[in-house]
Design a protein that fits this description.
- With 247 residues, the protein is of the alpha/beta class.
- The chain is built from nine helices and seven strands; from the N terminus they run βαβαβαβαβααβαααβ.
- 48% of the residues lie in helices and 15% in strands.
- It has a seven-stranded parallel β-sheet, sandwiched between helices.
- Helix 1 packs across helix 9 and helix 4 packs parallel to helix 6.
- It is globular, with a radius of gyration of 17 Å.
- Bound molecules: nicotinamide-adenine-dinucleotide (NAD).
- The site of nicotinamide-adenine-dinucleotide (NAD) has 26 residues, from helix 1 and helix 7.
Length: 247
């Protein structure tokens, strides 16, 4: 579905991002994964190469909150693969603190990665995609972007911003044939969730109509659809993949 395409996936070393990287590779794309540290990036690359040494993959670790660093990394990918078709802004951190204990610096950190880094990625790739005649930008939102959450206010705030950025850029960049969409996962079985006690997992899943959490592959499948030409007239959407948790 992505034969000949070149993609960047931020936060591609584990969890949902890693699953997106594998899925894009399996579907014929060349992929650059971005992670926070080169050491974890290299480990992810080793894992991918062990799976299939033929896959076209590279990895970098720019500071995503620093625009110049992001622009330099994006240009490096374009030079390496010769083009750039897809950006997946996936790196993100969450928060649970109550407002009474919320460190303003922690609020700033969450906005730096979950919002500013998304802007930086879009800003860096858009001119390249425009010059190439089009492209696809995908952002990772969350089910909490529709109704908030009762603690850790920085996280839902950042994901509301991601939706705003997605819808606005879809309108701004549609003229340049650049589609901009988001995927809003519900509770997904990443490393963080896998480490939770069984009792807690049951409690988390109880209110989900489908009665279970999502698998990273199920979220990656939504990214694959939106990245592919099957979604050629879909833009400005926030696609929920949450077992009807927010329906
Ligand atoms: P994860 O913690 O398993 O992976 C996060 C990824 O982001 C890692 O690759 C990590 O290297 C990268 N990252 C973290 N801090 C970074 C930084 N400062 N600079 C660069 N990269 C950094 O998380 P996940 O659960 O796979 O989440 C991925 C995305 O999905 C996030 O945007 C998250 O908000 C969103 N999401 C996750 C869930 C869930 O239940 N897991 C639900 C809704 C939305």
């Amino acid at each position: 579905m992505l034969h000949g395409k070149v993609a960047i996936v931020t936060g591609g070393t584990r969890g949902i991002g890693f699953s997106v990287v594998e899925t894009f590779l399996k579907n014929g794309a060349s992929v650059a994964l971005f992670g926070s540290r080169q050491e974890t990036v290299n480990k992810a690359l080793e894992k991918i190469k062990a799976e299939n040494p033929e896959w076209n993959v590279m990895g970098l670790s720019p500071d995503l909150a620093d625009y110049e660093a992001v622009e330099a990394a994006v240009n490096q990918v374009k030079e390496h693969f010769g083009r750039l078709d897809i950006l997946v802004n996936n790196a993100g951190i969450s928060a649970r603190e109550s407002l009474y204990e919320y460190d303003p610096k922690a609020f700033q950190r969450i906005m730096d990665l979950n919002v500013n880094a998304v802007f930086n990625g879009c800003r860096a790739v858009a001119p390249i995609m425009k010059a190439q005649g089009g492209g696809v930008i995908l952002n990772t939102s969350s089910m909490v972007s529709l109704y908030g959450q009762p603690s850790g206010v920085g996280y839902p705030t950042s994901k509301f911003a991601v939706n705003g950025l997605t819808k606005s850029l879809a309108r701004e960049l549609g003229h340049d044939n650049i589609r901009v969409n988001a995927v809003a996962p519900g509770v997904t079985r990443t490393d963080m969730v896998a480490a939770l006690p069984e009792e807690m997992v049951k409690r988390i899943c109880a209110p989900i109509p489908m009665g279970r959490m999502g698998e990273p592959q199920e979220v990656a499948n939504a990214f694959l659809f939106l990245a592919s030409d099957l979604a050629s007239y879909v833009t400005g959407e926030v696609l929920s993949v949450d077992g009807a948790a927010q329906a």
